[in-house]
Fold each of these.
Amino acid sequence: MNHLDISQIKEIIPHRHPFILVDYIEDYEPGEYAIGYKCVTYREDFFAGHFPQEPVMPGVLTVEALAQVGAVAILSKEANKGKIAYFGGINKCKFKGKIIPGDKVRLETKIIRQKGPVGVGEAVASVDGKTVVSAELTFMIG
């Protein structure tokens, strides 16, 4: 298994606080897949307004976290080092549950297709083994 801590992740993707949404990578294979985790705390900036009486991680940020894990997978390939992975599209996105303070979110993105600089990742976020978000993410390497 290939592990990455936050400092190693920051060597691969350009995201920084407060927008880096993955805490560590448990395993990855360059160009194939990555499995990471986001440990959600009540101190996350977005909880101040989403929602004050019932804090819920915004679904779009969960999709972004999945994209960042996918970016680790694709940008860790030697040919892509130093590049940026941009969103090209979000398809088949389903929100099936909430993410709340205290949750440890498992983020898994598998690269299922790539042709030149464009590719597609199959992404699933889960909490305690239950899928909370799934999507097909299209990316472009720039």
Amino acid sequence: MLIQKYFETRMKMIDDRLLEALTLDKRYAAQLKEAMIKAVIPGGKRWRPLLLISIFEMLTGMRKNNRLLPDAITAACAVELAHNAALIHDDLPIIMDKKERRGTNSIHHEYGNAVAILAGDALYTMAFELMGSLKDSAKAVEAIRSLALNTRSYGLVGGQAIDLAHKRKVMRINTLKHIDTKKVGSLLLAASDLACILAGADDDTRQSLNTYSVNLGLAYQMIEDIDRDYARGSKDLDFSDDYVPVSKSGYTGLLGFDKARKQVESLLNECVRNIKPYPNNAILMEFIQMINERLP
């Protein structure tokens, strides 16, 4: 119950800050600004900003009236804006061609391709604007650099490019892991790294928590594949390495169910080891548990 309350209160903080950032003057470029808001509000699970705040508060001792918490919330919202910018671009017809997002029309389907491209661009720039507003200027510069490194061509955007290049090719397991490490893991890595920057963590802590975050994201993606292929099969089937899923480009198609499950378990066990030395790690343990509970 306490953990549930924690997530509820932090979600409200995140949503309130996002609404504040997206309170835009609509006298000019009204459709663009409407598209930006629609892309972010009400939004999805907010895993990335919640992860950032959880790591930050773990490192700073979960103190009440933490004077640095507003900066952590601002940084968390910057990561969420970058995430939604990437989703807008990823959904475009020329990339992944998704007509729906979160149960409603994708931005390009609602407003057209041009507005969607501009809305994604505007959300990316807004993310860096928020980072620049952090109170400690030295930490702001370091935070901007971290977000840039994790969204550039070797990070999130690079992952999108590699995914696009392999859209109609037979996927190799190492390529699939690389794509997910970039497309999914980069902003999770940014979230943990920004939390460490704001909390003044040392290099060893940053490395441990960044590894935790990337492995958590990869485990989540692998379970998405397992869930999807499991749902396509019959309950009467024995989902072992002998069963060939419909998708040959996912983890279960490339590894088989048993090996995919074992890799998820290994990743989550590594996550536990990464955060075990730190006090107040209950929330980060809960992230692991939530993912583990989804394993069929």
Amino acid sequence: MVLSDGGPDAGPDTGQVWGEPEAAPAKVNLYLHVTGRRADGYHLLDSLVVFAGAADRVYAAPAGALSLRLAGPEGAALAAEPDNLVLRAARLLAAEAGIPATGALRLEKHLPVASGIGGGSADAAAALRLLDRAWGLDLGAARLRGLAARLGADVPVCLASHAARMEGVGDLLSGAPALPECGIVLANPRLPLPTPAVFTARQGGFTPRATLPAAWADAAVMADALKACRNDLQAAAIGLCPAVAEVLAALEALPGCLLARMSGSGATCFALFADARAAARAGAALPAAWWRWGGGLYDPPV
């Protein structure tokens, strides 16, 4: 499947030379508190975000027109999208720099769509980073963050792909506690959950901002501390998609599971483990019909 702006180079990638891929790692909300609501209807959040080793990848090759080729095991789910976020990011970056948007892009999709782990946002952020280098722009972190914010609430945090605390409507980012070594399992029942529907279904009041330490000694201590927090969207997501509760129960039953919770607006759930090897073993034990992954946290390049 090729999405393009037209032109002679908007066809299949046969014979094209692709550069090094840019990783678009899965974003995981270790907790998500809805702390209030603005007058314009947008919810205010407090969330600790980490990134898992599971990732999409974005490639670029020289071409005279802008195009996007979808690949990977989850790529077909995006075929019906009229305007992929990767293309939107490319056009926005080109407009900011005052240059034409060119190049053949390939999105190798490994993360499920509409699953609460920021796949589309991570893809857009990866495209900004990749094309900023490929086009020789060097716009700088501040200008790229400004563009990221125009693409979606989760794109700024995905731009750095570092653990961070997200507040406001996703626009207020601050440092996260120092994270210990740990493993993480991600599981999705292959049922999409649109974020607006989950927020609409949410009932109840607001949850205070969490109190976080400077660091946690190990994964078990971190998991115990996070049990005092919650995901305020989890009950609403289960009401819309009961399979989320099945995934959570399966994660909690895995040997060595320290904490199981839903990420973002779902339906992907996660479980914390002592290390990446334990998480990889645990993830492999989940039903093959689900999308599942186990390993360590993402280590972004310096």
Amino acid sequence: MTTADLRIDAWAKVNLTLHVTGRRADGYHELDSLVVFAGVGDVLEIKPADDLSLTVEGPFAAALGDPSENLVMRAATALRARYSPGAGAHVHLTKFLPVAAGIGGGSCDAAAALRGLNEFWRLSADPAELIALGAALGADVPVCLAGRPSFMGGVGERIDAAPVLPRFWLVLVNPGIPLSTPAVFKSRQGPFSQSFRWRGALKDVPALAARLNEGRNDLEAPAALLVPEIGEVLAALRATPACLMARMSGSGATCFGIYGEKDTACSAAAGIRAAYPAWWAEAAPVVLAS
């Protein structure tokens, strides 16, 4: 059984902090990260069909390659195999987020596909089962399924609700250079970090920025060795009026600036686009509830 045509947003994932806390015997790194979602992202549209199919368009569609290998298609196939809905679906993905950019574009798309097809096929799938399916697709998919500010631990499988955050805006900037996550981890050197978490609400956005400055992104320095333009992006963000802090997200190369107001964020994004027309720059509010 299916429902009517469905549209679902796949918001960009932003790592406000990212500490590499260890490495497991299987080679995967243990992480501790505060993750939020920005109100800018890809869009999935789901329509009835006899079989499963995927089409892709948008400014970053060409970077995705074969649609049959896309995480959206893999998520849809896994969900159908698990629940046998007795129907197909056509998914149309509009790709607005840069690829291999440290903002979880593929993972957010996969999570949106799992959530959307669960509703479209009226499966009422158990959330824990969706998380298990998501984890098999990628380490960031479980937190993208949560879709709310969260502390992420382990290799992505441990999700804890973050403290209440004040409302704030982000400016996301990518220099147009894809960055391989394995390459960034390979170039990381030095000791592992302690986890970085806190309890209790923060009174305002400056207090949030001050708290975040007590942490870091352990992948920022190794990523900047591979893509020196990351340093230019961070300098451009920090030079904008009212930017409270700037940092790289995930394994890069997208960086973010934190702003207290919509007007200052939008002005900053517009100024960066004008000064660096080859860069992708967007202002967006943080999504505080899923």
